[in-house]
Structure formats: C-alpha cells, structure tokens
C-alpha cells in the first residue's frame, strides 16, 4: 500500500471557476468566428458589387478575412496533444 494522500474532490468554488473559464473560452471563440463571418459577408457583397474591379477594391477586406480565419475556430476547452 502506498502512503499517498487520498484524492480530494475539488471545492464548489473551484468547480464554478472552471465552468466559468470554459464558458468564457467558448464565448470568445464564437465571437472570433462571428467576426470572420461578418467580414466574409461584406467581402461577398464587395465582390458582387464591384464586378471586374473587385481584385483592387476588395483587397483590404480579403486580407482582413484571411487574418481572421487563422484563429476563428471554436476549439472547446480541452486540448488533446496527439504528437
């Protein structure tokens, strides 16, 4: 037998803090996703409205959309490292 301490359950406050942190993480991820969606919708409007000049006129929106896509993912609160 080992002389290790028995496992203690986390307190109610600790559980509450963990749940709030998880919810905040999910909420902030969704905000990023929605920002990217709004920029994409504006980019589509720009492409349709500008016609043949959309490459020059819509370039700032396209650049912004690509930047937002890099971290516009809802990952959840768990991270599993497979490597």
Automatic annotation (TrEMBL):
GO CC term (a single one): mitochondrial inner membrane
Species: Ceraceosorus guamensis
Topology with respect to the bilayer: Peripheral membrane protein
InterPro entries the record matches: NDUFB10
Keywords: Electron transport, Membrane, Mitochondrion, Mitochondrion inner membrane, Respiratory chain, Transport, Ubiquinone
Phylogenetic placement of the source organism: Eukaryota, Fungi, Dikarya, Basidiomycota, Ustilaginomycotina
Broad class of the protein's primary localization: mitochondrion
Top-rank taxon: Eukaryota
Locations listed in the record: Mitochondrion inner membrane
Name of the molecule in the record: Putative NADH-ubiquinone oxidoreductase 12 kDa subunit
């Amino acid at each position: 037998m080992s002389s290790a301490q028995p496992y203690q359950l986390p307190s109610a406050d600790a559980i509450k803090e963990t749940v709030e942190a998880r919810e905040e993480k999910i909420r902030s991820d969704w905000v990023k996703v929605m920002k990217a969606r709004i920029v994409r919708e504006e980019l589509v409007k720009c492409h349709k409205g500008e016609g043949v000049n959309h490459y020059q006129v819509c370039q700032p929106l396209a650049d912004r959309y690509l930047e937002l896509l890099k971290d516009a993912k809802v990952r959840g609160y768990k991270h599993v490292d497979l490597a």
